[in-house]
Amino acid sequence: MAVATTQSLEELCINSIRFLAIDAVEKAKSGHPGLPMGAAPMAFVLWDQFMRFNPKNPYWFNRDRFVLSAGHGCMLQYALMYLTGYDSVTIDEIKNFRQWGSKTPGHPENFETPGVEVTTGPLGQGIANAVGLAIAEAHLAAKFNKPDLTLVDHYTYVIVGDGCNMEGISGEACSLAGHLGLGKLIALYDDNHISIDGSTDIAFTEDVSKRFEAYGWHVLHVENGNTDLAAIAKAIAEAKSVTDKPTMIKVTTTIGYGSPNKQNTAGVHGAALGGDEVKLTRENLGWNYEPFVVPDDALSHMRQAIERGASAEAEWNEIWAQYKTKYAEDATLFERMISGKLPDGWDKVLPTYKPEDKALASRKHSEICLNKIAEVLPELIGGSADLTHSNLTELECSGSFQKGGYENRNLHFGVREHGMGAICNGIALHSSGLIPYGATFLIFTDYMRNAIRLSALSHAGVIWVMTHDSVALGEDGPTHQPVETIASLRAIPQLTVIRPADGTETSGAYKVAIENAKRNRPTLLALSRQNLPNLAGSSIAGVEKGAYTVVDCDGTPELILIGTGSEVNLCVQTAEKLTAEGRKVRVVSMPSWELFEAQDAAYKESVLPKAVKKRLSVEAGISMGWCKYVGSEGDSVSIDRFGASAPGGTCMEKFGFTVDNVLSKAKALLG
């Protein structure tokens, strides 16, 4: 039985947070103790006095969301979760910090630890996720709240560090948040002036407060974040009173607070204190407890969060019961959305096309799909990084999401691709059933790659709408022509990449993308700028399989042509010429490697029989990866260099994407 010392109850709680972090990092011999030691007071005040959450039901809908953007300091969050009674973080999990299979990994992971909202680690992602969470709350509140019943009403709190504020993504996201006036977004800035290289003065001397004021944020400063708990509480209360803009509270702290020799140094940022320094820190802070022992008084006080949380959820459940009675139609929609279900037959709105239908760019077919889907799925919300009329992503049934118009579904991200990516992840991870989409040119996925990777890692059901998918975009030249991009995106685990060949395949891509979103998986669509003819053999069901036969021959084929996107039609035309010459040719459209790899062996064999060794892939990108499907006896029509500035048709011709060149390569294989 642990016995309380003469420390105040608040000090006991704060030091419990600190020493759980210290002891876990020490046992693991790995981690970042400095931030938890310095930020413990602000985190304690926030979780103890302000945040509404239910530790026994981490997924209660109307909980406040907490994001630790400075994810390297994750022991701060794990300590708080253990102390307040989350079942996912036991004392054994604290002791197992950073070990195989633990619920306390080296950075917060929402898919590992119930109660963690988003996956943070790469600095700046978390604050941008928080902007997405706040957008989701604002949209749902505007959509569902009634004058007499407030169904959606919660805050998004985020702790950011100096590193987050240095990363460009935070500027992108926070600039947009200020423009939108997201009053329920509150950021606590752990202003400790230390990063890995030492004092931030060597590289970071700007006035962060003035920067956030310029973004349109309400800015406060707690000068003594180490001990002035009243000032921290006062600042958070004031932040909550400001409803027309987000708030940034600069809380000046001492990293590694309490460590006699390492506080306020880079040495405490990312390494264990060491046994001698741990002993000195215990003495300095009057902590007379063994490792991982929490005083009963502190644990009892922190565990009051369980009762508070149950009470808050019960109050909300009463509101929800009244809401279902008075506003049954809206309640039914709300319930369906948060359950992750799709309405029966929603996909019937997706159009299919015949060869005689007008050739359109797949970006245009995408626009048609988005607007058809938006009519039956009100949870669809998204927009473009200042390329709405090039990406063709505007929802005609809705206005723009702006101050005073949060009920609208067209998001305008500005030229902020990376911020857009992480904001979309936040919307998807809000647990509201919203399906966000974010759009730009395919080449600019390079600007937002980390966010796309994190959407796959953290199971965020985002739809990435990427247009201008090859050198066929033309005159903008190699800076805008994505020759290697598709291959690099296919390398991301758990990301479904789809490059549709025509209108029907674009519909199939959206069917997959919407269903993926409800299964918490991201999908990236690579869409053309140029018009594409509609193919006789294309199908929605074929897209769902990842690859399928669009043109076949009698008996076993001598040659298989494999195409994606705009190049499938080249394969079809080539097959017609070879067939006329008496050759047996199969054309396979392969819009998605990932979907094809998910099929069973029998299906794969039916599409690409092992006995057929002569195979030719045709894709306007690099050849890397295609060897898996064409084998040692096959070949590829590809571009293994950068593009060029010229009309799109000229680029395709010069790089060999013509029927004549594909035919020549095919005949060479056939001998």
Short description:
It catalyses: D-sedoheptulose 7-phosphate + D-glyceraldehyde 3-phosphate = aldehydo-D-ribose 5-phosphate + D-xylulose 5-phosphate. The chain has 671 residues and is α/β, with parallel strands linked by helices.
Q: Estimate the global geometry from the Cα principal axes.
A: elongated
Annotation field: number of helices: 26
Average pLDDT, all residues: 97
Strand residue content: 5-15%
Total number of beta strands: 20
Number of domains: 3
Fourth CATH level, the homologous superfamily of the largest domain:
Thiamin diphosphate (ThDP)-binding fold, Pyr/PP domains
Structural category is alpha/beta
Helix content: 40-55%
Spatial ordering of strands, largest sheet:
10-9-11-12-14-13
The CATH topology of the largest domain corresponds to: Rossmann fold
Q: Whole-number radius of gyration?
A: 28 Å
Low-confidence stretches: 1-5
Q: Any idea what the CATH architecture of the largest domain is?
A: 3-Layer(aba) Sandwich
Largest sheet: 6 strands, parallel
What distance separates the N and C termini?
A: 84 Å
CATH class of the largest domain: Alpha Beta
